[in-house]
Write a structure and sequence with these properties.
315 residues, alpha/beta, 5-stranded mixed beta sheet, 10 helices, 21% strand
């Protein structure tokens, strides 16, 4: 859509150095200099003042920099719109997948969804869990159509997205390999007395907040350790520091040294598909088909029974 040398030009202009721009671009300074020389030659302009003190933009360079940012952004948006149009035409549902949002659930639904939506296909889009990914939920429909996740009404409002509940997932407990609790069939709060329990921050989910208040009132000798978001680092911390972690059955395979065990806590959260509030027509058709599937009598829900070591039973 545009000359990729513009990307390099912007990096050089913002960094004020060929070498710094080269580091950001993962190429050599010589390659960066060659690109800028070619760009100046092609445009017939001098874009940089080069001196022993460093680089600075000429008036022509300053003018080009302001417009180049718009050109690059517009080109990227144009390509994104074209891809969205192609996906709509081909009815390709883009499913966001990460460590904390596995596609197993949708894979179980897919055969029956396909029966209701002939010609529809699915594309997996990987992303990294983190604050940026959570903020990106407001852009569902641009790079991804649906993401599997935990939500409540406040979460949906805060992140400007909608949710289709597939199941109410129970809050279970993960403990390190070798922990005394790993031998339990069910983890009770009495078994956690005098220990620490990792629990996601207040405000993330209203159902878990109710559980938090219950712990504080009825089990004050259970120390709650807050964390901001479910990420791999949280599971590592539980395994390495020998902490119990409030988690979900669907995340039982996130860490190989943690056992995920049922609890009697009586806490369950909404688990399902996050999507744009006004989805494209083909996505709306997909969501309608999913609703029909989960309403069928033979739909077995989200969690599979597991034994005390966190693995599915052998059939």
């Amino acid at each position: 859509m545009y000359n990729p040398q513009l990307d390099t030009f912007i990096r050089v202009a913002e960094a004020g150095s060929f070498s710094k721009a080269a580091q950001e671009s993962f190429i050599t300074p010589t390659a960066v200099i060659k690109q800028m020389n070619l760009l100046e030659l092609r445009l017939g302009l001098t874009l940089f003042h080069r001196s022993r003190q460093g680089l600075s933009l000429t008036k022509a360079g300053e003018s080009l920099l302001a417009d180049a940012r718009h050109v690059v952004r517009y080109s990227q948006e144009s390509v994104a719109r074209a891809r969205m149009a192609e996906h709509a035409e081909k009815r390709i549902v883009r499913v966001g997948v990460s460590l904390m949002t596995p596609s197993t659930f949708i894979a179980r639904l897919w055969p029956k969804v396909k029966e209701r939506c002939p010609g529809m296909s699915m594309q997996v889009v990987t992303f990294e869990n983190g604050p940026a990914a959570v903020r990106g939920l407001a852009d569902l429909g641009r790079d991804m159509d649906v993401v599997v996740g935990v939500f409540d009404d406040n979460f949906l409002a805060e992140h400007e997205c909608a949710g289709l509940e597939l199941a109410r997932e129970p809050l279970w407990c993960a403990v390190p390999e070798g922990d005394l609790l790993a031998a339990c069939e069910v983890v009770t709060f009495d078994a956690l007395r005098g220990r620490s329990l990792m629990l996601i921050r207040r405000g993330w989910n209203s159902d878990i907040d109710v559980l938090r208040d219950r712990i504080r009132t009825d089990y004050p000798d259970v120390t709650v350790v807050d964390f901001p978001q479910y990420r791999a680092e949280v599971f590592n911390q539980a395994a390495n520091e020998e902490l119990a972690l409030a988690t979900l059955p669907v995340w039982r395979d996130v860490h190989p040294l943690l056992y995920t065990l049922p609890t009697d806590w009586g806490c369950a959260v909404s688990y399902g598909l996050l999507h744009a509030p006004d989805p494209a027509e083909y996505v709306a058709d997909f969501l309608k088909a999913v609703r029909e599937v989960i309403q069928d009598d033979d739909w077995s829900g989200a969690a599979q029974p597991i034994n005390p070591h966190g693995q599915p039973p052998v059939s």
